[in-house]
Design brief:
Elements (H helix, E strand, L loop, with lengths): L18 E4 L2 E4 L2 E3 L2 E7 L6 H9 L6 E7 L6 H8 L4 E5 L6 H11 L4 E4 L5 E2 L3 H10 L5 E5 L2 E6 L5 E9 L12 H7 L9 E3 L17 H9 L4 E4 L5 E4 L9 H14 L1 H6 L1 H17 L3 H14 L4 H27 L1
Parallel strand pairs: 4-5, 4-7, 5-6, 9-13, 10-14
Antiparallel strand pairs: 1-2, 2-3, 7-12, 8-14, 9-12, 10-11
Helix pairs in contact: 6-7, 7-9, 9-10
Length: 341
């Protein structure tokens, strides 16, 4: 079974009151609940936050609540939220900064909608995002707990290069998640789920602690691996989110990405025993980082362990080693040329 308990305080359960659905809205007792709860964690993003909020409130689906979770910012996030004056907005402040995963869990503990969506404080939604996703859910059986798609990302090109003027659609359509495969295996090899691009049934996970609060990066990936063990995921081709790689973007930090991979291996030890080739892949990723970090002995240890788990991967391991050798040779030649110039 997946590890869905991260040791945080248990989430307060809803009162045992009759639950009805009328015209797409939930009613518990006399309280009419929103159809969609949107959770937006933020930390000192006062410059980009108004547009991110605006793109949610401008959705063609009006029946929503937007929960802004302030992760102990030093900026006046509350003042901005109060100034917008929309009754669908809710503001929650965390007393201590805990990172994106912890902030999303805080939002989940207050969410009341039948469906859950997540917005990032520097992304924009196209106006029909929620409507498109609700329509997708309407055509799916109950075993599907999430629908997701790609986003248009500015600041990175299709080749992986970063910089102004670079743009891509990610993830690419080439590896789209099929409905009729082992989705756990597929996502371990290629995570297709970015939470700000997705929508979830509120009951798709056994608890409301969806995210690992300790994960420094790759929390979407870590969550997707566990989600796929509880529910099916539909991936569509329509990009409905606009994103950008910022200077402090986690996705540009190899060290933090590697820490995220390590966390995935730690949280899914039993699962990865059944998916040895995927565990070997994660070990090779770690070895690549260690080689670039000039720790060849430790990198060799993980490369050899990956071959033991997945013998056919030996050619991949040889390729990694040869690329590092060639890179070292080129570096030495360049250094020699500069010193003799």
């Amino acid at each position: 079974m997946p590890n869905d308990n991260f040791g945080e305080p248990s989430i307060r359960k809803s009162p045992a009151t009759p639950h009805f659905v009328r015209a797409g809205r939930s009613i518990i007792g006399q309280e009419v609940l929103p159809q969609v709860s949107v959770i937006l964690p933020t930390y000192n993003r006062l410059r980009t936050l108004p547009d991110a909020i605006g793109s949610v409130l401008a959705q063609s689906v009006r029946d929503l609540e937007l929960i802004v979770v302030d992760d102990a910012s030093s900026q006046n996030i509350e003042g901005l939220v109060r100034s917008i004056g929309d009754s669908r907005l809710r503001y929650i402040r965390r007393p201590i900064n805990g990172g994106a995963g912890a902030a999303r869990n805080t939002g989940l503990s207050h969410a009341r909608g039948r469906y859950i969506a997540f917005q990032d404080s520097d992304d924009l939604w196209l106006p029909g995002k929620l409507e498109f996703q609700l329509a997708a859910f309407a055509d799916l059986p109950g075993e599907f707990g999430a629908v997701t798609g790609p986003k248009i990302l500015h600041g990175r090109g299709d080749s992986g290069r970063f910089g102004a003027g670079q743009v891509c659609v990610t993830p690419s359509a080439a590896g789209r998640l099929p409905r009729d495969v082992d989705q756990v295996d597929w996502i371990l090899g290629d995570n297709r789920l970015s939470v700000q691009c997705a929508m979830f049934r509120s009951d798709c996970m056994p608890t409301r602690q969806w995210f690992d609060p300790v994960a420094a990066a790759n929390e979407d990936y870590e969550f997707a691996v566990r989600l796929a063990q509880h529910a099916r995921i539909l991936e569509y081709a329509e990009p409905l989110v606009l994103g950008a790689i910022s200077e402090d973007s986690i996705s540009r930090s190899r060290r933090r990405q590697t820490l995220g991979d390590i966390r995935i291996m730690k949280n899914n030890r039993q699962l990865l025993q059944r998916y040895a080739p995927r565990k070997a892949m994660l070990m090779r990723n770690l070895a690549r980082f260690l080689l670039n970090d000039r720790k060849p002995r430790l990198a060799t240890k993980f490369l050899l362990a990956s071959v033991a788990l997945d013998p056919p991967s030996v050619l991949t391991v040889v390729d990694i080693a040869m690329r590092k050798v060639l890179s070292s040779v080129r570096h030495r030649v360049a250094t020699t040329q500069r010193s003799t110039a």
